[in-house]
Amino acid sequence: MREFLLGLRLLFGAGRGNRMRFFLMAAGGSLGVCCLALVLTIPQILDAHDMRAAAREPQTTSAQPTGSTLVLQRSDPYGSVTFNRVFVARGTKGADSTPPGLDELPGPGEVFVSPRVHDLLRDQPAVKGLLPGHEKGLIGATGLAHPDELFAYVGTTRDRIADEGRALKGFGYDYAPFPAVEPSTLTTLRFALGSLVLLPLGIFLSVCARLSAAARTRRLASLRLLGLSTKGTQRVNAAETVVAALFGALLGLGEYWFLNQMMTRTGLPSLRWYPDDGALSATTIAVCLIGCPALAWFVGRASAREAAANPLAVRRTAVPKRPAKWGALLLVTGLGIVAGYCATGLIDHPANSVGPNAFLIPGGILLTGLGLVFTLPLISHALARRVARTTQSLTLNLAMRRNEVEPGSTMRVVTGLVLLVFAASLAQGVLIQLEQVTRPSAPVQDYSVPLSSVTTEQQRDLAAVPGVRAHAVMMDSWVDLESADGTLQEQATALVATCDQLEGMVKRSEGCRDGKVMRLVDPNSSVGSDLTPGTSFPYRFDAGKGKTLNITLPAERIVYSAYSASAVGSAVLLVPPSALPAARPDSAQFILTSGSEPDRIREVLDGIAAVAPIAEVELIGVNIQGLEQIAVIETLLAVGMVMGLVIGVAAFIVSATDRAVERRTQVTAIMLIGARARTVRAVQCVQVVLPLSIGLALALVTGKLAESSYLITGGSAVYWDFAGTPLLALAAAGVVAVAIAGTLPLAGRRINPELIRRD
Predict the structure, then answer these.
(1) Which DSSP state fits 68?
(2) SS3 for 277?
(3) How far apart are CA 507 and CA 397, in angstroms?
(4) Tens digits of per-residue pLDDT, 164-182?
């Protein structure tokens, strides 16, 4: 306790500079704690989404006892999001069960909607067609997964949903039908966010705990020489860092509370939550208030170990020891693991993430990142020593000699930025794998819209939606279910399109001629193989009001190859638009084709919703919930990148500023013996830029290896992400430019000789 009180007296009684350093430590720690609280709260926000979605899920049975309440669920894409509707036919049984957010079930003609649907009905009146009835009230927050959800309870009569409806038993399950993020994906997301934020965060908090390390070490050495014990000296230093960390932790929690309140009002792209979802939990508060001071305690004791063990060497400014080589062992071990998995990508049977590999891959990536941090001082020391011995440049000699003496001081400045580039590669790998899992493997995406739900004008507007590369109509032949002989008639699906439209919807086609009815044959499919040329198929128009067109299956063929999950794959006839009467076919679908990139799909869905908001859209081979998950994960990774960038830049600013203050004595001495300010600035710049460039080069190489090992074991179709390399290289160049700009003002123009005499 005596050492703790002594540390506090030194903290507040050692001058204005020491107090400023304390508040700088606290401010830096608060930023780190705020980022830590945000990372720890993200899973809590996602769990809150899933819990509310699970609590409102109807418990149903296929049996329909007399008087039972029936429900029918519909989930349709509206633009790039899901519109959930629950149709309810109240009966004498089960009507007392109400979902969260409602006080009563809707009656026939009554509709309860979410606030987002309420606004949508005001801005898009055509959406009223999806919700037959009048709006009676709003769904409460407890019944919605998030504030922007499109959800509605629609009251109806029993006869309208009797065929598909299910008897209601109650509401609530232990699991969400469509979680915001799949559990397996959430594990990967946590690992990615940990690499993006937590690893740089640990370095940043360590940097904040070691501000003004040289001056504090000399002061602690003086206390040791005055008779303070070794452990007491370490406790004095640790007390100062712990108080700063605790004050910063409290400030950081307050910053997070304010950030949570602000973000719940503005939201993030594809991710919204209520204030209570992001409230600080007891676990998060304990981790921040206990973990951060504990880290500061260990860092403070470690930084005071040298002053306590050998105070004379510190006071006389002895040459520091060379950096330890054990950090290189971590890097070599991690690189060995990830390089081994990368090598399996060159053989016929690449490694997977089953069994021990599920632990070795994350372990190898973490060892690589940690090894990169601990190896940089060793590399900087070796490079500085070699360059200083061979160079004839005064600037390089001064810069490298300083890096040789204090390699750790320089690396504290650049470590956060190096880790940011390393983690960015991992984020790219996660996005690549998730997009391949949830998007179709084909380069095109087909959309099917019932032709009866759109007008002729809307049909033209849908064809002109940005991103649509081809469009056509698919119609089914009419089958008489009450034929006299009782035999089942054959049916044929016809594609109404030109040769150019067909070409835009398939991989390749041969033998197509415009203006003629032709047979469609895919050698890789058995569709239509049992049909005989010369067979006639009737197609009805205008809801069967006497207009029927008989089309004969010709012998002339178009050989084509369809994409996987393609709407064209079910067609056996190609009919030119000029061969149809001036009427709308029955049992027809309007088909649109676009690229399969998630952004492109969302763009087309938004365009379809703008033209025909009440039309039911089917994405061939794609689940709209998968697209929503990609959007959420991209948002969270973007948040992680922003936090990593903030932490990296903050670590650079704090370290560079502190280093400039610590180096004032040496800079003053150099300038007093005749060095120009321009030379001193060049020395400061080279001291930072050279080791930073080496660290960034290592981060690019190791990050790409870590990314490739993750993609290979994850079963991705892309093993080597060369497309992302230019972006990372450009980011690394930007980091170097920021470092150069940040080091130039660190050499002051005024010379104060008194600094040489100050302790």
Answers:
(1) B
(2) coil
(3) 63
(4) 788 888 898 888 877 887 7
